[in-house]
Amino acid sequence: LSYPDYPGAHVNMAILKAQGGNDDGAETHIQAALALDSSYAPALNQLGVLRRRQGRFEEAENAYLAAVAADAGYALPHYNLGVLYELYLQRLEAALQHFESYQSLSGEDEQVGKWIVDLKRRIAANQRTANVTE
User: Fold this and answer.
1) CA separation (Å) from 60 to 9, 95, 104, 115, 123?
2) Is residue 13 within 8 Å of residue 6, measured between CB atoms?
3) Which is more confident, 129 or 71?
4) Range 28-44 average pLDDT
């Protein structure tokens, strides 16, 4: 590692390890980055990605929320929270909120724009169904 005192270098190594299927190596580099800076948003985001892949959804959520708290202008944890809430936790309103935050921070992402439209439609349909059954 050329820059062992820079948390970003550890995050980059964690991403490479994760892409190679080495979760233990990814974890080691994420923890090294967080040891250097416990509020480094990219490391917290990457920890969330790792935890989501491991099926540890509450820990993933906590890591993403910590990344948002550490750097409100960092778009990726909003994207990842949107994915977590929609696909894994079925919390559509929260997913919509985070996808919209991602869009406002990152600019227009055509795919995320489509997801936002779909989420709004599904939320409205769920509300209509709830009103009929009450």
Assistant:
1) 21, 14, 22, 21, 24
2) no
3) 71
4) 97
Provide the token pair at 67.
């990344």
Cβ(71)–Cβ(100) under 8 Å? no
**Token pair recorded at residue 72:** 């409100």
Q: Look at residue 84 and tell me whether its pLDDT is greater than 80.
A: yes
Mean pLDDT value across the chain: 95
Distance of CA 65 to the CA centre of its chain: 8
d(CA 4, CA 109): 34
Supply the pLDDT for residue 108.
87
- By CB neighbour count within 10 A (0-12 exposed, 13-18 middle, 19+ buried), where does 102 fall? buried
- Please report where in the chains the tokens 């921070």 appear, as a residue: 105
